[in-house]
Amino acid sequence: MELMDKLEILADAAKYDASCASSGAPKRTSEGKDGIGATNGMGICHSYTPDGRCVSLLKILLTNFCVYDCQYCVNRRTSNVPRARFSVDEVVKLTVDFYLRNYIDGLFLSSGIIQSSDYTMEQLVAIARQLREVHHFRGYIHLKTIPDADPALIAAAGKYADRLSVNIELPTEGSIERLAPEKNVHTIKLAMGSIRRKLDEKAEEPRSPTFAPAGQSTQMIVGADASDDKTILSTAQTLYGSYKLKRVYYSAFSPIPQSPGTVPLAPPPMQREHRLYQADFLMRGYGFQAGELLPAAGNLALDIDPKLAWALSHREHFPLDLNMAEESMIARVPGIGLRNAKRLVELRRLRRIRYADLTRLRCSMKKIAPFIVTADYRPAADTTASEVLRRSMAEHSPRQLDLWAELQAA
Amino acid sequence: MSGSGAAATVAAGRPVLVHSFDEWRTAARDLLGHHVPPHAVQWISQKDGGDLFAHAEEPQGAPAVKRGSPTVRISRKLMDMLQTAACCRVPNRWAFLYLVLWRWQQGEHDVISPADEDGAKLTSMVKAVKREEHDMHAYIRFRERHEQAGPPRFVAWFEPGHDVLPQVAQHFAARMGRVTWMIATPEASVMWDGTTLHSTGPLMRGPEDIDDAGEALWLTYYRSIFNPARLNAELMHGHIPSRFWKNLPEGAIVPAMVTQAAAGARKVGQTRSVGERGGTVIPIAPDKAQPQRDTPSTLDACRRCELWQDATQAVPGVGPETAAIMLVGEQPGDQEDLAGEPFVGPAGQLLARAMQDAQVERGAIYLTNAVKHFKWEPRGKRRMHKTPAQREVEACSYWLDSELAQVQPKVIVALGSTALKAVTGNPHATLKDVLGKPFMHQGRWIVTVYHPSYILRVPGEDMKAQAFEVMVAGLREARQLGL
Ligand code: SF4
Fold this sequence. Notes:
Number of helices of chain A: 16
Largest interface: A-B, 100 and 99 residues
Number of helices of chain B: 19
Order of helices and strands of chain A: HEEEHEHEHEHHEHEHHHEHHHHEHH
Structural class of chain A: alpha/beta
Helix content of chain A: 40-55%
Oligomer: heterodimer
Helix content of chain B: 40-55%
Strand content of chain A: 5-15%
Bound molecules: iron/sulfur cluster
Strand content of chain B: 5-15%
Largest sheet of chain A: 6 strands, parallel
Number of strands of chain B: 14
Shape of chain A: globular
Strand order of the largest sheet of chain A: 3-4-5-6-7-8
Distance between the termini of chain B: 97 Å
């Protein structure tokens, strides 16, 4: 099979993985050295496909042959898809060629399970090793870890990769048992735990050999099972706390060809995935707990963002005096982000904050107005009922939703 | 120095000519030194295109600041902002930068705050330049030339909106190692020969004539990694400004991809060309596909309470089944949860020290916990230990009881109150009544000491030492009772 054909099949097979970031690697340069590649810690999106998602890494599967039968996966053994397999050299060559043309910042490599977990993992490690040791490639490498693989192989992977990930895929043990019969929460957690221990060891012993400097991440598929957002966010919170993950990625389930009866025929609204990312960011960046965002079972609101939803149900904290409040509380005001909260506190040292300052900081005034007090402003209607506010602030562009509704009807 | 500085030029009624940030800086320094206010200066600059890398050296004969004039002290942050904003192609950039500098010098330090009017403009200039740099890092596309053509091996064409080529060239020098390349822009070109950057004026209209096979592979990749079920062209265009699309190879195939996806291909996520190929199922029996795993011990599978859910694994006791002494802690902690072994974290290390002092051999003792799964709650990004509830202790006593039945120790050392409650089966047992006072319970000695984490937490060195002593004494006692 031609390289081009393989690329077609194995990129197509890899697109259901949501992780793509290339940030977090230590600074590296190739200036005046053999080999290629540099990282500046920030990561770059080199293009965007018509689904609006960025291309920052060459995201491919080593092979889409797979002996597992995960129901949500297009590559499951019972799926009737064209199969292909790259050689180690082919993946290496593609990565280098694409990198030199500035299409990508590195490689994100994953694989179907062939022969055994250990065998599969060995192949992934071999590619990373060849890139690093033979080609002196200093770009970004993310390897998807096969959970059942020998911890020694995971340790080897961490030596070459910037980031490792173990996908949990589904938020509850029951769903994993049902939809991914060959997978097992226990071994997934053990693999994440073994990566965290290696990361901890490295942090304590800075001179020891590098180990996945950009940390570990995972992915959860949304809408392939009946779990609600509360369950998803709680699982994410548990994983962040237990395994110090850098990111949890959420991937709205996409309908797959010849879908088995165990998974839904239609995808969840894309807006749901978006809201989960927003909520996740509130947990990571703002210190929100999953239970604050969703006190009871259920899903996040689709019409308003989770921060606004939280503020509307916690009117007792508002209106907040921006000249007095703590930075962390200011950041909880809808329409004020982390950066602006910081800027306001900095400005406050020089003079009192006025309403016009917020306009210049490009805060969303419509959102912000009912929640703040400044030197020259106090909301007239700070008694307006939350329901009324909510209606006035709901996002009226559910184009995505219409699109999916039409699809579900079809 | 009369007659040579920018102040003298202004005094002579002439405009100040600058081409680069360093020239502006020299002039501005001189003007500030002479208290020349912004409105009195007229700045002009020629079309850019001179030596891109000139800013690496100070211009020859830069006039020193006049003796006795105030030294210009500006923060690093302002300096960086000015330098970056200077690359922004807006009319009157030099005059504006001087205005900012002047206001700063007058003590108006909020001039760099985006909430200030000039500060907002400065910030947006900085942002525009950074953005352009970023876009150029991201959206330059190199094409590979034929080997016989000689260096540069890769060439690219780009139309930057601001003066960012020098910085960007540095980025690619770091990225490409010894591989040679050239970037051409309408204003200037820069070439990397593997060790040094060279710059020239505008050279050519880009590498349109190069036939690069790598590009066909890229387009294939680009088509296949797109998920038609998620079509959202608006979002895509929102990310990449339209002026870049025309020079991106993928720009040419986007419209067709969007139309196809919109025309029904979005029902499945698969790319059409892949869907049309014949497929293969993998003939393997389900039981053959099942990975080899250790069968979970019954403890692993325990669901007597909810604690298993947020923990990594159950942590069973360790030690000889003939041990005379059994040490019972509360529950595994963060480290124990990951390692699957009791007492490996900081509390375990303290315990090890106490054992050493008491001359108790760790290997001769059976170590376990009252509760086998780690109970915790999130605090920021950490797992904070949470004391198990009575019902959890009760649920888990099933496992402790079976360990007791197996090991049959003569002495139990209860570490802290949860352990005491667990081993006595009395939810009201309190530490202070029995601390340091061994007692018999169901035919065994029970020695109670503090939990090592308590000793780690207790404030003050005195209190710590005291609590540690209680533990050492208790362990010594246990050793004697166990003889
Ligand atoms: S803590 Fe004890 S009772 Fe609860 S699940 Fe774990 S082993 Fe079972």
